[in-house]
Amino acid sequence: MSNSDYIFAVARIRAREKWLLSDADVRQMTAMKSEGEVLTFLADKGWGTSDAAQDADSMLEAEEKKNHRILRELKVPKAVHDVLSLPQYYHNLKAGIKEICTSEDFEGVFYDLEDFSKKDVVKILQEKTFYRLPEHMQSTAKEAYEIMLQTMDGQRCDIIVDRGCLEAMISAGRASGDAMLKSYAESNAVTTDIKIAARAARTGKSVHFLKEALAPCAGLDVKALGDAAARSEEGLLSYLEGHGFREGAEALKQSPSAFEKWCDNRLMANLKLQKRGTDSAGPVAAYYLARQNEIKMARIILTAKANGFTEEDIRERVRDMYV
Amino acid sequence: MSLGFALALIGAALATALAGSGSAWGVGVAGQAAAGVVSEDPGQFAKVLILQLLPGTQGIYGLLVTFIALSKIGLLSGSPATSMDLGTGLAVFAACLPIAIVGLISAYHQGRTSVASIGLVAKNPDQFGKAMLFPAMVETYAILSLLVSILAISNISL
After folding, report:
1. Residues near A307 by Cβ (< 8 Å), separated by ≥ 6?
2. What Rg, from alpha-carbon coordinates, does chain B have?
3. How confident is the prediction for chain B on average, in pLDDT?
4. What does A40-54 look like in DSSP terms, one character per residue?
5. Domains of chain B (ranges, CATH numbers)
6. Which of B41, B44, B115 sits opposite A7 (nearest CB)?
7. Is there a contact between A11 and B112 if contact means CB atoms under 8 Å apart?
8. In 3-state terms, what secondary structure has residue A220?
9. What tens digit of pLDDT does each residue of A35-79 get?
10. Contact: A278, B116; criterion CB under 8 Å
11. Which of A12, A19, A322 to mutate to test the interface with B (most CBs of B within 10 A)?
């Protein structure tokens, strides 16, 4: 797909951008008194389906489906699609491995993917026909499956699959030939590696664990990051401060939620550069990710309202929006 | 037929061919963008159609210059100046070049600017007036080259 083939897709996206939630909308939702009020506000903005009474879960699920449908309708090339949707494929793989190995029913956990549904993944894992998986997923699936079967260590299974996902996203980003997607995949890996290191430092994980969990990526020396996180939280903070992540270190000192917010805002700042493009995959990808961000934001607010969180608590978790 | 007459004819043909090609490209890409916007927001049809049409003017300018050139060399009146000398033919050829070249390049850039303006209208329909101005600025240079071509051809004496 040449750049000029994106002109239609980008124009379509630009028309849709005016319906994205703005920072002002999020502030308004944060100040609302109840979950019901937020649901009504979102329904007025066209969220959910035409059903009169919708709960938060069905509304958010409907929005996720709409977002995936747009991506399919725009017929983006496979490499572009991969960068955006691989996390869902690897999520289904993770859920499938756990369902097979623990014999528990993970219904409702799987993403409803046309070509990688719960039925598909469970069948492949049951028959151990890993060759039927996408090529980038085969070795990761085999390794995670065997480790889960031998040790029943769900966390270790998670880190192997998550690392495989990050590496596949980086490869897809490079293969897409689009500077924004390449940068997003790398930036996402950097942010995720720092998140993993922060959690590992907090829970006192070993260097071996970190070596297995951190995905190599440009812009981050994962060995040094792992060593610093394995030493102590202070070690990690000083590594981050000395390697261009001062704001991240400050957020980490403040609270885990402030740090998560910094991670998401860092990715969003990268996406916002796509607001001016007219003919590349970047704006399409940025719109898809911006929609995912607003769905995540709506979920945070709805959950917080349902659980009686204060406005201040919610504000601490509110991320920057795309528009 | 003299070489001069052939050169004049080639110049006239280039005016339409190059400026028309640029316009076809410009209107084409702007049309793709316009279709993208209308697929989401049909209410913007009239606005994006105007923006799509802007890069089409170069093709019309090229056609106009071609008519003037053909008229000058007598093809339209039925008495072609087939014995035209080389110098005059070269002069007609050169006179057609401004609209041919500037038409091609300006239509290409106007098409791209129209695409960007259509994106602006898609996000902010109220900004249509401003969005129109950006591609319209590119038009200036197509008009200047049209004037030069017309003045030059009109002042060539056979």
Report:
1. none
2. 18
3. 96
4. HHHHHTT-S-S-SS-
5. 3-154 (1.20.120.610)
6. B115
7. no
8. strand
9. 999 999 999 999 988 776 678 989 998 998 899 889 889 888 888
10. yes
11. A12
